[in-house]
Structure formats: structure tokens, C-alpha cells
UniProtKB/TrEMBL annotation:
Name the record gives this protein: LON peptidase substrate-binding domain-containing protein
SMART domains associated with the record: LON
SUPFAM superfamilies referenced in this protein's UniProt entry, alphabetically: PUA domain-like
Signal sequence region: none
Length: 208
């Protein structure tokens, strides 16, 4: 994956609980707060057009987020923006700062995530014959639907990253998926979270 810009040391931050952007994935976002409309306007004036998606954590922000490049945006009749971010790289947040902008900016370190800017990962150990039955049970239990033909045809990384982003896990679980070092690690954690939910984890009613 090639980009015609250098990764900046400081980026605007968009804190969203329960929203994570996985490497080489895309995420649609609905921007309507004035401060984040200003953030979008400022980002579009830069060469990189990066916005750092990061989850709130405790009284602050998570240690790791993912920066996405604004690749599409459209304005609604009432002035809101629908945007699409394409992942560029995860980052480690060094410091979040309040400055002259109405939104937070972050000093960030990209050095641990060089793999994010390369081609898609493979997961040779992935067993769809084991994953899909679990996933079907999970989706049925949560009254969710999916395009199973498209899921069957999806590449390993696209499938695992998409599930990690859209399934209704807790913010902490989504953060753990984001921080997984490799695709295989993410797939193992994802499958474990599904199995845990199916066995009534977190004091939920048993689903199996």
C-alpha cells in the first residue's frame, strides 16, 4: 500500500466508543458535531487527510488507535457529513492535546505498526469450517444477518477485520482486537469472543 505523503507526528483525534478501524479496512462515519465538522474541514486541507479514530478509555483515551484517510464525503441537506475513512496505520498515542482547535489533536508514534502499510495479511491456520458454524449461531442469537455468500468469498483479512469491526462486542473487546499484533492473533481472539458469548459470558443468558 503506497501513499504519497509522510506520516505526520500530530493528527486530529476522533474519539468514538465502540468504533475501531482495522488495518487496510474502511469505515463509514456520520459527522455532525460542530467541532468534528471543523476537524473534517481542517483534515481535508492537508496532504494526508488523516483522522485518528480512537476509543475513549476511563478518563482519557486508549493507548492505540488507527488513522484513516478521508477517501469519500458527502453533505446532507442539514449540513451533516457522511464520510469514509480508509485505514492507513495504527498508532500509539503519545499525548492528546487541547490547542487552538475545538477538537483534540494527538502526538502519535507509528513505529510499532510498519506492517499496516504493506499488503494484506494471510492466515494459513484459519479454519472456516470451524468458524462459520460458530458465527451462524452467534448471529442468530443476536438477531443479526449477513451475506453468507459474500462472507464465504471474502479474503481472510477482509472477513476477520470486518467481523471485528461490526460485531457487537464491548469497547474493551474491540480494543483488544485492534491491538492484536497479527491477523492470526485477531482471528483467534475473535473466535474466542464468539465462543465466550455463546457460553453465556459476562453474566448473559446462555445462548447455546
Amino acid at each position: 500500500m503506497m501513499f504519497r505523503f509522510d506520516l505526520p507526528a500530530r493528527i486530529p483525534l476522533f474519539p468514538l466508543p465502540g468504533a475501531v478501524l482495522m488495518p487496510r479496512a474502511r469505515i463509514p462515519l456520520h459527522v455532525f458535531e460542530p467541532r468534528y465538522l471543523q476537524m473534517l474541514d481542517d483534515a481535508l486541507k492537508t496532504d494526508h487527510r488523516l483522522i485518528g479514530l480512537i476509543q475513549p478509555e476511563g478518563e482519557g483515551l486508549a493507548a492505540i488507535g488507527c488513522a484513516g484517510r478521508v477517501v469519500a464525503f458527502s453533505e446532507t441537506d442539514d449540513g451533516r457529513q457522511m464520510i469514509s475513512l480508509r485505514a492507513v496505520s495504527r498508532f500509539r498515542l503519545v499525548e492528546a492535546k487541547e490547542g487552538f482547535t475545538p477538537y483534540l489533536v494527538g502526538d502519535v508514534d507509528w513505529s510499532s505498526f510498519g506492517r499496516d502499510m504493506k499488503g494484506s495479511e494471510d492466515d494459513p491456520a484459519m479454519d472456516r469450517g470451524a468458524l462459520f458454524p460458530l458465527l451462524r449461531r452467534y448471529m442468530e442469537a443476536h438477531e443479526l444477518s449477513t451475506d453468507w455468500d459474500a462472507a464465504a468469498d471474502a479474503q481472510d483479512e477482509a472477513l476477520i477485520n470486518s467481523l471485528s469491526m461490526v460485531l457487537p462486542f464491548s469497547p474493551g473487546d474491540k480494543q483488544a482486537l485492534l491491538e492484536s499484533p497479527t491477523l492470526a492473533d485477531r482471528r483467534e481472539l475473535l473466535q474466542g469472543l464468539i465462543e465466550f458469548a455463546l457460553h453465556g459470558g459476562d453474566n448473559e443468558e446462555r445462548l447455546q
